[in-house]
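To: structure desk
From: M.T.
Subject: fold request, one chain
Message: Could you run this one when you get a chance? Sequence is below, nothing fancy, just the single chain.
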Amino acid sequence: FYKMKTVYPFLFFSFCFTLLNCQPKEQELKITEYINPFIGTANHGHCFPGAIVPFGGIQLSPDNPRSGWDWCSGYHYTDSIISSFSLTHLSGTGIGDLQDIRFLPVISRPDTSISPAEYIQSGYARFSHNNEHAEPGYYSVVFDNGIKTELSVTQRCGILYYQYPDHTAHALTIDLSTARNWDNTIETSIRKINNRTLEGYRKSRGWASDQRVYFVIEFSQDCQVLAGKDNLTPLENGQRFTGTGCYLWIDFGDKTNKILAKVSISSANTEGALANLEKEISHWSFDKVKKDAKHNWKRELQKIKAESDNEDNLTNFYTALYHAYTAPYTFSDVNGNYKGPDGEIHSVRNHIQYTVFSLWDTYRASHPLFTITQRKRAGDMINSMLKHYDAYGLLPVWELAGNETNCMIGNHAVPVITEAWLKGIRNFDGEKAYEAMKKTVLNNRAGMGAFRTYNYIPYELENESVSKTLEYAYDDWCVAQMAKALGYEKDYLYFLKSSQNYANLFDPSTGFMRGKSASGKWKTPFSPLYSKHRDDEYTEGNAWQYSWLVQQDIEGLIALHGGKEAFSNKLDSLFTLQARLEGEEASPDISGFIGQYAHGNEPSHHIAYLYNYVGQPHKTQFYVNKILTELYKNTPEGLCGNEDCGQMSAWYVFSAMGFYPVNPAEAKYQLGAPLFKKISIKTGPEKKFVITANKDSDKHIYVKEVYLNGEKLNRTWITHDEIMKGGELQFIMSDSI
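Reply: Done. Structure tokens follow.
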């Protein structure tokens, strides 16, 4: 009896200890359950639902047959036909490309009366969203014809699992020829190494003018391979077919209806693709790849832990974090090789080479987010930009698959580098980075020569003249800060002065940034509502949206308006005017309207926080909450504009946490109002920055007081250092001003 009395308490406390230890593990596991990869796959989000790992180099995802603007990612939720599962995809871009090496399981044999292209098209399969599932690192679908496909990935490899109905052909088509009309095939090659292994490449020209995808495919089953462009003929072991296009039909016979395919890609050579496969998937366990992919996501996502009773808010938040960690993509293979913008093969040893730098978008919030949660990767991304500079002579504008597309405007590798340096990320050569920054902004490309000559860009000399002037002025401010940090005083003064060039296009009679001629005359007629897609003075916007883009000198912009009251009144008008555009060819990117504020496109993203600068933070809190709750939804239509490689989502992540980098390179964050009752950010091995708020009601959107580490904060911003040191930021919230 005495022994029993001592055992029971021991068992009780052991049970409690086990229960307490299980709770956080269960919470960590649930983080991945909050991801909804279908958010942004409808409307104009341009997202794809397929299998990826954080910043991975392969994106295994389904494609639909259509190739319109809303199919830039290859997939749109409104479609009901899958034409392939391809290896590469763009996340949320406004231009399409990639979708290379297209796999499609089929249950029919080739029809010799039609072309291989027509035969492959005949295999396009219908499906229902009821039979489709996606989660971090995994995607599956069952076609109406009974074929089930499952996809998962590692950093550079993918694995596909096909289950065929009984009493049908168990076959697979591979299309090396097309990528849904986004690009032109230059050359393809396929070689059958043995009865289970293929290798080859696809070279194409599209948005990426010189794209190369080398691949290796291994099957779990011996197979017969037919290949060709105009007709399909047997491919024997060791035989290669090369041409301007190629289609394959692969027959697995009837020994089993369950087939696995392992694939890997490299931009350098097939040797790199094979090395990837040998290192990352040396086994045949689909479940292991799936489990590891999910673990990779859990490890990255749990760096920020949100607590709320609102499941939709948690799903929106973690899906936003998921999308923010999708790009840039890993580009170097495990041998360290990749294709550079000069067409040559380059190597890296001490960092991963990344690709897909949508910098006009992502400098605003995505890269600032990386400086908090992905500091090593942030430095590697800058090293990737410097490798681009080595080969190309300038920093990237919009880099894609080892190509400079020169898409969009500005020199926004510059703020990314400056921000990282000033925030203490130093795993790159600062002197070399400054050399690259200076050479890039002093180049004559895209109106920069006129910018130096006139101290603005005359509208008759360069398209998008107002937007480019404002973007270049901001970049020059960032160069000035880097020059100051490195001790180049003369350069600091020069670039600080040129960062004021924005003021030369401010028209006090209208209160807008306007097009001006070389002779100093304003362009007429003028309407601040007018927009013509990339064919007037504004880039994907109008004067209402672009006239606020002076992140480096908001006090100066306020002064141009005549003071805080006039500036505040103008902001009020922005948010309350009718949501309409003038002009027959307005950009479809301008979306997500609240008045003339357009959240669906990036130039607007900092504007709601400008009320902080005029002593009206309650209006920042109101509009930020309105954007968070009305323009982000847990549905396929849940994004109001292109996701743009993480920027739309990074805005949500920051704003839901309660702060935002209005000027990313300033190393400060303007305060809004948190969406959650508690957020914990891991800022070091033993450090956390915890944000709390008394969110007892969704109506608690106004901030009464803020305390940083127990001391009342009498300012509307916090610094990067204050976050990274760890501590607590407490918001006292209310439902009224």
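Reply (cont.): Residues 192 and 198 are 5 Å apart (CA to CA). Let me know if you need anything else for the meeting.
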